[in-house]
Amino acid sequence: MTHRALARLQQGLAAARAEHLERRRPVRDGAQGAQLAIDGETLLAFCSNDYLGLAADPALVEAARAALDTCGVGAGAAHLVSGHHRFHDDFEAAFARFVGKPAALLFSSGYQANLGVVTALAGRSSEVFADRLNHASLVDAAQLSGAAFTRYRHLDLAQLEGQLAASKATDKLIVSDLVFSMDGDIAPVDALLDLAERHDAWLYLDDAHGFGVLDDGRGGLTARARESDRVIYLATLGKAAGVAGAAVAGHADVVLWLVQKARPYVYTTASPPLLAACLLESLRQIETGAFRRAQLQQRIAQLRAGLASLPRGTLLDSATPIQPLVIGDNAETLRVAQALRARGLWVPAMRPPTVPAGTARLRITLSAAHSEADVARLVEALHAVV
Predict the structure, then answer these.
(1) Please, where in the chain does CATH 3.40.640.10 lie?
(2) Nearest CA to 368 among 290, 282, 288?
């Protein structure tokens, strides 16, 4: 007999299935690349965040092999015990130099980093101000911090200014994606910094999708933001960097505070040192990777030109590798994704709650690993099935 608590879960799953919101995990074999082996099929994939094609780059693979001989596999303990390896330390210093901040801290994931930073800086006497389209990890972090949590309409800085002016909080923290993961648009960094300075707030920028891609690879920080002590910068390292983890950079005392107070950092076994060795090589590839970024921009321009005359769907305005094609209806979005898969193309269908209701979309992501022929094939298929 099914107990009532399990029955309620099963009812919830049935409701999600009826609304075309049930999710399943595709199983991949082999390495990351433009061509993927998914559930036993070889598909041309436009779904990963490996924007520079570094995830299976031979230089990173060789860095991992070399590190194995010196550090083994596991870290063995938390950073504050004995898990902090020379590779971790060297990467933090190199990352801080690269993004133009005094110090940096390496976390095991972007989700952990956001939880750690926000809960370390904000408490019951604080207020967190967040863009409504921020990543879920920033939402969860604000709610877990115990601070007052205020959200403003997407990129509506006039509303944000009114909220900041009305706040009586001791500490204020503005948190925003720098490149928004489902829309591909970019936050106005200097305008946000103006508000932070005017209202004496921290500004925390999650650049998960801009690091390695924007500017010269250093991401979306402006010169002012690099110099400002109130700006804290996060880069996810499992996307354009091709490895895993996340790095947070800021004033040296901010980083020292996080070492004391960021619970997901303090109470987690350190990430494998060999990953930090790979990240050092990844950083070198990003620094010298102008040709990769140029190729990526060519693929973005090719896709946007090819879809300009698409009779249905709305291609959102994005200059980043994230190219969302909004269809709206959940079932229709799934139908298009399945029709593309039948043609050997893997493009994920994004539905609520990942995106707002009524804005289900194909989230097309491009990589320097894609060829001109790959993108032409996708454009042709979309014209046929949308």
Answers:
(1) 58-287
(2) 290
CATH fold label, 25-52+290-385? Aspartate Aminotransferase, domain 1 (3.90.1150)
Four-CA torsion 198, 201, 207, 213, nearest 10 degrees? 30
Q: pLDDT tens across 16-48, in order?
A: 999 888 888 989 998 999 999 989 899 999 999
Residue 95, classed as helix, strand or coil, is: helix
Answer whether 0.90 is exceeded by the pTM. yes
Query: In whole angstroms, how large is the CA radius of gyration of the chain?
Result: 21
| Partners of residue 231 on adjacent β-strands | 203
The predicted-structure confidence for 232-289, as pLDDT tens digits, reads as follows 999 999 999 999 999 999 999 999 999 999 999 999 999 999 999 999 999 999 999 9
Helices (H), the chain: 4-18, 58-71, 86-99, 110-121, 136-145, 157-166, 189-198, 223-227, 252-261, 263-266, 273-287, 290-307, 330-342, 372-385
* 120 phi, psi to nearest 5 deg: -80, -30
Cβ atoms of residues 214 and 52 within 8 Å = no
Which of the residues are catalytic?
181, 209, 239
What is the dotted CATH code of the domain comprising 58-287? 3.40.640.10
Alpha-carbon gap, residue 4 to 315, rounded angstroms = 44
Give the span between the Cα atoms of 18 and 210, in whole angstroms: 36
